[in-house]
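Readers of this paper often ask what the protein records in our data store actually look like. Such a record has a labelled line for the sequence and another for the backbone structure tokens. The tokens are whole numbers drawn from a learned vocabulary of local backbone shapes. We quote a single record here, exactly as it is kept in our systems:
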Amino acid sequence: MDGMTHASDRRAGIGKAAISAKGGMHLGSRIVLDDEFLSCRSSVRRFRRGEVIAGAGVLIDMFARVHTGVVSASTMLPDGREFIVEIIPKSGLIGELEVLRRQTLSLEYRAASNCELHFFEGRLLRDMYASDPCFREKVFSRALARISELELRIIANAASSLQSRLASTLLRLSAVYGKDAANSGDELIISQNDLAATLPASREKVNQCLRRLREGKIIDGGQGKIRILNRKALEACANGAVSVK
């Protein structure tokens, strides 16, 4: 992956692959590996918030595991707007499917917060995929889950108001941030530009909805941070049961 600064190396123990057993509609619905599986040398690289980790169209033979922080995966819409397709949490992988398929990256990956990533050679994943039928099945099931999740998001976005979509997005992001033991999930570190790109919607309209949620004491915060104050009320907004004006 290009655009990355090498920091240090580490050696992990030998073990077997593991897939996250948690269900539900979360943005981080990806293949997740235990540290024990990563059996050979890895590069540890750190990125500041906003830095590009890897650009779309790049052919890679490495995959990365998010050790700390979160990473966004985005593409450009036909009208030139950015669309953040996925927010990848701690323990999520980057480039695993492209490595298996020997394809170029279709999305741009950027540090959504200060983060640390561990990079591994693609052959590790391919060897495991070729030798372990159970692992192949889990990879296939995870890929289908991610496709299904994106389809449901698109359908929900088409049928919901912007306020409902925004509330749903904040709850999904809360689940992502909550994967880190250092974060309860109530505080989200995301800029208004990135939030608008996640929906996607214009920044002005997103700001209006955020202001209404703040006035209703449902959320608080500023300067790239959002704190959820009333989760039940936010869930009601997401379900369309309550409209904050």
